[in-house]
Design goal:
Blueprint lengths: L1 E4 L5 H10 L6 E3 L3 E4 L4 E4 L15 E7 L13 E5 L2 H12 L13 H17 L3 E5 H6 L1 H11 L45 H13 L1 H11 L1
Parallel strand pairs: 1-5, 1-6, 4-5, 6-7
Antiparallel strand pairs: 2-3, 3-4
Helix pairs in contact: 3-7
Amino acid sequence: MNVYTMCRSGNHAIIFWLINNICTVDHNIQGAVYWNNEKKLYYYNNCNHLSYNFIENYNHLIKSFEDTDMDTNIRYGDINIIILRDYKNFIASRYKKYGSKLGLNNSYLQNYEQIRDLWIRLCDQIINNDKIIGIIYNSWLTSKEYRDNICSKLGIINTNDNTSIVSDIGEGSSFCGVKLEEDSTLYLNRFNEKLFENDIELLQKILDDYENNESIKKIKKILFD
């Protein structure tokens, strides 16, 4: 299972929700690898940022990739997932966490236009590529039916339907850390202009793209409205 996503998309909450519907995690190298030897489940985080020797004997192998295009050389039998969040809350979360750099370090995207364009390309993959299982964080957070449907596509039963998992990788919300919001809809209302009061140029770019970029407008209508 290959998971393609972008930093601050709610991806770790979703990945660990999926894992916990398969089995518990018994061991980990924090921030990198998580596994259960008995069930032969192994999760490798940030595979395009860290170097791994992947285990070959497994029942479940999950690899995640952040801030990169999807591998176009899809092998037969591979399950490929893309996890994304709505545009404005996604950018707001990156800005709150990393400031104007928009990324942890230079192994992540830190240029606004590159971040925008990759988000568009990955959304287009969800819309146009029937070999992709797209997971939209907004829908996953708010709809049990949506979560059940994801599990069904993956051959998993949603018996551990916990959307409140805070992994040590994701470090919780950019806004409230590992403390859970009592109202989960707050995770979907992170964007506000005051957040960008020290970076008006970036704010103007975001608002202009959200209102006028034809690709973003189309994606919003198909995936997020």
